[in-house]
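dumping this here before i forget
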Amino acid sequence: MHKAGLLGHCARARKSVRMASSGMTRRDPLTNKVALVTASTDGIGFAVAQRLAQDGAHVVVSSRKQQNVDQAVATLQGEGLSMTGTVCHVGKVKDWERLVATVSCREMGTEPGGGKGSQPEPPSLLSWTALGFSPYNVSKTALLGLTKTLAIELAPRNIRVNCLAPGLIKTSFSRMLWMDKEKEESMKETLRIRRLGEPEDSVGIVSFLCSEDASYITGETVVVGGGTPSRL
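structure:
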């Protein structure tokens, strides 16, 4: 009897571990959160918006063109996800004002004197590795410093700031690097994981960084690059 009871306890423990590792015990980790995802009607941004909504958040997507916003919102709402959208060109102040007005300050965790929020920044693996795109490289490297600075400045308001640095992800933006089969094979040779990334490869870490599981993480940069060396 004692042996049978012990075996039963071990079996239950193993089942609990499997359930925890598969996420079965923690559903909708972003429930009651609002996620604002810029440039989110295509590629990585769209995949991130989709995942955050799947994990329970209400998501606001944005892009420069109304047509793209409408299409993304319709697609994601068609999947039963909580979604709204607005046009936003980052170079236009009025667009930013409208974007902020779309989401209440309390929901975004930016109310004066308090709040609770997470702000993932989107640099690139080119923050560390120069490949001949000088202005782009420099702008992405600057985001690493901006993340560190904002993490310090916003910590008293209980807002965390972290970076996601994706490697070569197969999107329309990077198509010149992978559309040609020879170029694609050459790029794969630089990766420890011998394949190019997909937008969905980046979304899990973003959801994690936005969740309470990452409540003690701020000012960090996480590389999702298939093992490409990344050092400043």
